[in-house]
Amino acid sequence: MARKKTITRQNILDAAFELVLEQGFKNFTARKIARWMNCSTQPIYLEFTCMDELKNAVLQRVQEYLVTEFYGRTYCDDALINLSLAFVDLARENNHLYRAIFVEDHFGVQTMREFCYKLAIERLQSNPDAKRLSKDRQMDLVTGCWIIATGIASLVSSGYINIEQKQMVSLLKAQISDFIQHDRFNSQLAPGSMANISFGNSKMAQL
Fold it and tell me: Which residue of 43, 114, 202, 204 has the fewest CB atoms within a 10 Å radius of its CB?
């Protein structure tokens, strides 16, 4: 009779996901995950052909986690602002994960950019004025929110500033209103070009 597995694929995925939540990707190796599970690396390579396969599975879990634990939070009556403030909370509450995704880029810029832009554009549709904008201008508006949210997240998570939620809401509302009324980005750049902006090693068009 074949031996029953004591460590399943799900066990490994759960452990790898927990490790990423706790430590980011600095210890994302088969050996570190095995140590986290108190086992050898053999079960990992029996269930996953390579570490990239495990990493892609963890990415799916991370996206689900972001949606359920952060991106579903409500702070005000504007869905896009809620998403932006949830991003700030992610940086403040789990800086390891925030850095792994949006600074160190362990999951790939394109994958997370598509995921986050999709969420943001969906949220934008609840704003009647923004909904009437062209697709390019909607993308620019989302990028503008993301730039501001990233700046706030960086300063708040590092302890450089203290800012109240109502101040962040006011700042983002003013930005959204201004971008809807004035074609700030497109006046100097080609339509949609803000979606390709990068700052240093971090692609800022990730939301």
Answer: 114
What is the reported pTM?
A: 0.80
Segment 35-63, tens digit of pLDDT: 999 999 999 999 999 999 999 999 999 99
- Compute the distance between CA of residue 86 and CA of residue 69 in angstroms, rounded to an integer: 9
